[in-house]
UniProtKB/TrEMBL annotation:
<protein>
    <recommendedName>
        <fullName>Rho-binding antiterminator</fullName>
    </recommendedName>
</protein>
<dbReference type="InterPro" id="IPR023534">
    <property type="entry name" value="Rof/RNase_P-like"/>
</dbReference>
<dbReference type="InterPro" id="IPR038626">
    <property type="entry name" value="Rof-like_sf"/>
</dbReference>
């Protein structure tokens, strides 16, 4: 989910690695994030993939939801730290 007009801010590298680990372990995760309108949302799903497209990082959930990584607030009660 792109946020129009807002440049992408890379997330903390260690946190990115943690997202990949949850995806590999197929962990059902609780994800808190801001949607494209700036509203806080919460979903529970498995992370299927963490990837970059046009220099923006995303994660795709098993329910089809795609989340831009710089819109994350917390995953599995672990808050997103400062950017790289």
């Amino acid at each position: 989910m792109d946020t129009p007009g807002k440049p992408y801010q890379p997330i903390n590298c260690d946190y990115y690695d943690r997202l990949e680990a949850w995806a590999t372990m197929r962990t059902i995760s609780t994800i808190v994030f801001y949607d494209e309108k700036g509203n806080q949302q919460e979903v529970s799903a498995r992370i299927e993939d963490v990837y970059a497209l046009n220099k923006v990082e995303y994660m795709r959930m098993d329910n089809g939801l795609v989340i831009r990584l710089d819109s994350l607030i917390a995953v599995n009660n672990v808050p997103l730290p400062n950017h790289c």
